[in-house]
Amino acid sequence: INRGVDEGETVTMKNSKLNVYYRAFYVVDGANGTIEIDNCDITGSVYALNVNSANSQDLVIKCTNSKLHGWSSYGEIKSASFENVEFSKGASSYDYLRPYADTTLKNCTFDAEFKMGAGKTGFTITIENCTYNGTAVTASNVCDLMFDSDDLDNLKGCTITVNGVTVVL
């Protein structure tokens, strides 16, 4: 997507499968509406979902009932939410979620190699009823299970809650 999603507009990708070299679902810039991804299976050799947000600060991403295989990262957008989403490496080379914006993860699953960091400080990450390699994610185990140890400084600068409990790093 290269621009073309103006404030108040919604672009929906539904019931689709993407398996693309490098970036599978890529929002280039200037998208300030809403992008909805529903019932999709997305694999990129590096990025499953990637947003260059230089001029997309009002963009909202809503991803439901989908699979994201590869690195998912989005810059300083308004917010991103994932519900019933499977995060995994799949056939890609990477296994990361790196948000730079308020993010909600609800009823999501993460594979055994998956790591999550934060691209910057000052935003909120909300995790509800998620599992990591079959283990329920809690406020007491989220750091050990899935947080990227190389990015703890940024994560410490964010407000993180798991099932309503604030995480202290």
What does this entry look like structurally?
The chain is mainly β. The protein is built from two helices and 18 strands. The strands form two sheets. Strands 2, 3, 5, 7, 9, 10, 12, 13, 15 and 16 form a ten-stranded mixed β-sheet that branches. It has an eight-stranded mixed β-sheet with strand order 1-4-6-8-11-14-17-18, with no helix packed on it. The longest helix has 5 residues, at 142-146. The protein is globular, with a radius of gyration of 15 Å. The termini are far apart.
Report a brief summary of the structure.
The chain has two helices and 18 strands. With 169 residues, the chain is mainly β. Strands 2, 3, 5, 7, 9, 10, 12, 13, 15 and 16 form a ten-stranded mixed beta sheet that branches. Strands 1-4-6-8-11-14-17-18 form an eight-stranded mixed beta sheet, with no helix packed on it.
